[in-house]
Specification:
This protein has about 525 residues and is of the alpha/beta class. It is built from 19 helices and 17 strands.
Length: about 525
Amino acid sequence: MKLEFEQHIVPTDIFEELDFSGFLSFFDLDVPLVPRKILRPMTKEEGQSHFQRLDYLQEKIDQGRLEIKKLINQSRRLPLLDSLMVFFKDRGLEQYHLYDLGRFVSENEALAGLEKNCPLAPEISRCCADIRAILEEYTQKEFSGLVYSREEQKISNQVDKLAHKIQRGLSTYENQIYEQTGVKMIYPYPREIPAQAEDISKILSCRLLRVEKRENMCRVDFRLPEELETITKEKDRLSERFAAMMQDKLETINTKLQPMFEEFAAYYEERKNRVFYYSLLWVKNEYSFSFPVFQDDFGCRLESARLPCLEREVTKYVPLNIGLNRGSNVLFGANMTGKTTVLKTLYFHLTALRMGLPVPAGSAVLHFPEQVELHLKTSGNIRTNLSSFGDELLFFSKTISPSAYVLADELFQSTDPVSGTELSEIFLSEFSDQEMVFFCTSHYPDVLTLGAISLFRMKDPDFGDQEITLEDLLNKMPYTLERISRDRINDALGQTRKALRIALNFSLPESIQTKILSALRSYEGRN
């Protein structure tokens, strides 16, 4: 099952950076019944109903102590009938369709037997048994062939005998032609031979062949003896009669099956949806993912939230734990402490949940993310004549719906500090009164004193006096967050000098390192 997001849901650059493709590949379980599915953002009602059904199935599977792997393995045995359904509806099923339809109802019966704790649409399930009964009446050899009446079997046998007789006669005839002319003929296809061929005289004189001259070529065909011609005509006559009988039988089968189409079509769609749900459940259980718990209050709490792309690349990955309140939330901390990674992790999980997928987290409790917006700092766009500041303002010009999640990195760092601080305070104040979650990172200390925001700080890495490399530093991202109360703001701000400590661990010029050490000593002397 190949999952894809609807186009333009996630910007291409962030889609690639966060490796959404790699995440979606977890769900590619090679289930023929659902070969491909395009996911679109769900509404609140759709999302809540979707995850309620998943929770229901998980509960029933747990109660019945049924392995989800068995459900997936049996689901893999069901053939895809999408193209067949058109013929079913129009009473045009052919014999090969009956084989696939028979396989479906047969394997589906085995799957339904595993689902005793959570039967699939009982009110329309009976159609599968009725279809199977009709197919078993009219087909044989596991639905691969039609059942013949005595007369049909007799004619079929006659056709087979005549075919064998014709084949023996043709084989003898072809050998005689080869002995006389050296030409190998394969009935009933004629041969074209150059008129100047070396043995053309033998071919022209052979009474077993019919030759038609065409410019520089000779069209050579059989001149069958009357006995073979008679047998061939009889075989063709019986074959046509037999084909007409089989067509009548197919029309009878189609007539009996057609009244069940609507019910079966509804059941078939339900079955595909259920198999899709089983795939989501399997991935959730196999990789220790989570389904969300939705709350009426506005906010979001993630526990042990992970980015799969970082887990594969970073050896000392620290999962994210975060709880965001309704309104404005601000995260600050030194550079290189993982603030942007926090935003991207949150965006990844909110987007996955919005599309109906389980997430790589210990738990997720939140209001449903109908709208998720992310703004990362850019250098602007010369094609639209927008600076980085203009690009940021354009982002905030979007329509923000109630209950949205809006994530912004380094709020208004795109302009001068005085204006940036004022704009940050205005926007934070505006969003603090709305029923949504606004979460941004900021380096402006003045915004931290606003009373209507929830404040977070990145805990700085404690390396002690040891020297570290850039790789060591990156392997500790993202770091953990801590919520800062009003009375701890000054202390928290003071700790931001850790950025200077981090800088000392890089191979900077000695003169710059000396000045950084001097600045640190001066700061520590004042405190």
